[in-house]
Amino acid sequence: MDYFLQQLINGVTLGSIYGLIAIGYTMVYGIIGMINFAHGDIFMVGSFIALILIVALGITAATPVLLLILALALVLVVAMALTAVWGWTVERIAYRPLRGSFRLAPLITAIGASIALQNFVQVSQGAKNKPLQPLFSGGFQLTDGGADGSGIVVNLSYIQILIVVTTVILMGSFTYLINNTNLGRSQRACEQDRKMASLLGVNVDRTISLTFVMGASLASVAGLMFLLYYGVIDFYIGFLAGVKAFTAAVLGGIGSLPGAMLGGLLIGLIETFWSGYFSVEYKDVAAFSILAIVLIFMPEGLLGQPEVEKV
Amino acid sequence: MQARQRDSLLVASLKDSLGAAVITFALAVVMVGLRVDVASGRGAELFLENRWLAVAVAVVVVFAGRFAMNIFFWKRDDPPSLNFSGLLPEGGIGERSSKAIKYGLLVLAVVLPFALMFWLGARGSRQYIDLAILVLTYVMLGWGLNIVVGLAGLLDLGYVAFYAVGAYSYALLAHYFGLSFWLCLPLAGILAAFWGIILGFPVLRLRGDYLAIVTLAFGEIIRVVLLNWYEFTGGPNGLSGIPRPSFFGLEFTRGEGGFANFFGLDYSSIHRIIFLYYLIFALALFTNFVTMRLRRMPIGRAWEALREDEIACRALGINTTTTKLTAFALGAMFAGFAGSFFATRQGFISPESFTFLESAIILAIVVLGGLGSQIGVVIAAIVMIGGFELFREFDQYRMLVFGMIMVVIMVWKPRGLISSRTPSVALSKNVKGISADLVQEGRG
């Protein structure tokens, strides 16, 4: 039971990170119907930017708590802004010229952009792993492992709380943004019918760009969280995380914001429980198999709407 | 629009270039300007190096480049026409020149090893023949994938999985049962095709981009399984000592009963290389021959129709699932052949050779060459793999450039370099290639 609880906590944490990345996939897919293959690498760039900022500001575990939190908030904001520029640029260079082209074209430029981003980071930051000393240590001890020490100590670390809380706050504010602001309204309009939206005065290109900007900034939050949680990043983390987050988006129903979050949580839980109870080596196989199974039997996902084919 | 008219050419260009420069600065300031590295000796401390000069150069180059382009081309009312597309023949290569190129390349491929031997000698020509073998392997893979992506219009991002199935089939059959290459070659193809059917049956109902992701996932699953199943596949260490192919029972060995001995030649290791060259050449030609024949048959026509419009196909009574499945299985089969060739050439295989990047390279060859164009695949494979080998020293940069080129060519010519879509079969003799611009594809 204790072991289960620990796995549950870890799964929810991991799921929050996947969920944040999945939102970027789901929003872009919803609005222009393409898989932004480079999104995982945007996440990777975001986490590198966060790492560099942390080192540049000289944040360590020795920094006083209040200052630490302020500094991390600063890192978060700057990383979001800079990563958003990356997301915008990728859209501008690789996707916008191909709007209205045949369906495979943007997917192929997306693969090209993904390869380019990965190797750009490898060239500019080196291929070595970048380990970051943990900034937060400690947490709450939920169980003490029993009197005889036979049970398992269940830890809920501060960093896990931070990740989940940040995710919930961001999810809340982005849902508000989509549902209640002008930008959100034009996004939903473009999602339904791009041509009609542009006839009614919505600046479609700008809306799509902003979607990429939003997705990229959320991915950079996920990047920072990933960095703080695992403490080590390299230029290749984007690929796996990207595919899993895409799985999450599909599982939750692509195009649906709460669906992405739910899918992220589920994928995080499945992966953690799989490695906890079965085998660590095959955890990626588990995630990928779920992707295939969901797509085959339930292509609209948990919360999505079935897509109607039009001639 | 109003604002732009009021600004003079210079002011508008300046504004635009300044914007580009600011964005470049934002992109580069952290990712290029600072490099985080692990200090050696001081534990795992991280430290930063700065490269502000590189940032400054990037910003200046973007500003100046963009400014020049604005002044001379983009913001002018009468931009001088510089049609780069004119460099490529309009609507694809004409039939006659296409034929000339085809036969030229064919003759070149036939005489290539001997010409190289003649010029460079056995020792010097070896690396070039090796490169030619590599290029031909990719040509064959490209042609195989062309059936799936170019003809049937199914985006397969996990093509390398079938390549891996072929390679491992041969390696394992040889390892456990001692079967020879010539027996395993068809078996590897059949096994790969079988896997193609197993995978294709459930997933081929999916829409284009979903299919892409599922095939990608499948490719990764195969790789992870190969990597972790130590007892059977040797895990990350791979399998070594894979037997070499024989020439009608003659081994390429020194001494009695070997190839050189039988034909009364002096033994040289180049014999085997040349034999491998002609082997992959024959395999590639076989792939091409089958594809070209199938394109004229009802099944091939159904593939092409499927690529253009799936809904129309269904309305016309084509069974889309079996049509897709045949394309998928055939493509997989050729990957299986190529895989077993790869295994026998290398003598060693490991999961490292079958990463997603490999799939991406094959796909890039097909797409950049022009979907559905056989000659385009050849040209793209020569340029790409040749270019790769040429810049072998710049290992990281060449992948960076590869990614960028993929984007640039796709944006410039979304239909690939040779983008004609001549129907394989037409009712009237007058039907010419459908220009790429006229084809509005319904679905991926």
Q: What does the model show?
A:
- The complex is a heterodimer of chains A (311) and B (444).
- Helices cover 71% and strands 5% of the residues of chain A.
- Chain A has 311 residues and is mainly alpha-helical.
- A two-stranded antiparallel sheet of chain A has the order 1-4.
- In chain A, helix 2 (39-57) crosses helix 8 and helix 5 (158-180) packs antiparallel against helix 8 (204-230).
- Chain A is globular and about 70 Å long.
- Chain B has 444 residues and is mainly alpha-helical.
- Chain B has 16 helices and four strands.
- Chain B has helices at 2-6, 9-31, 52-74, 95-151, 159-177, 181-203, 208-228, 230-233, 259-262, 270-296, 298-308, 310-315, 320-346, 356-369, 374-390, 395-412; strands at 34-38, 46-50, 239-240, 348-349.
- Chain B has a two-stranded antiparallel sheet with strand order 1-2. Chain B has a two-stranded antiparallel sheet with strand order 3-4.
- The model of chain B is unreliable at 434-444 (pLDDT under 50).
- At the A-B interface, helix 2, helix 3, helix 4, strand 1 and helix 9 of A face helix 2, strand 1, strand 2, helix 7 and helix 14 of B.
Question: Which features characterize this protein?
Answer:
heterodimer, B: 444 residues, mainly alpha, two-stranded antiparallel sheet, 16 helices, disordered C terminus
How are the SSEs placed, and which strands pair?
The complex is a heterodimer of chains A (311) and B (444).
Chain A: H1 2-32, H2 39-57, H3 65-95, H4 104-125, E1 130-131, E2 139-144, E3 153-157, H5 158-180, H6 182-192, H7 194-199, H8 204-230, E4 232-233, H9 237-252, H10 257-277, H11 283-297
Antiparallel strand pairs in A: 1-4, 2-3
Chain B: H1 2-6, H2 9-31, E1 34-38, E2 46-50, H3 52-74, H4 95-151, H5 159-177, H6 181-203, H7 208-228, H8 230-233, E3 239-240, H9 259-262, H10 270-296, H11 298-308, H12 310-315, H13 320-346, E4 348-349, H14 356-369, H15 374-390, H16 395-412
Antiparallel strand pairs in B: 1-2, 3-4
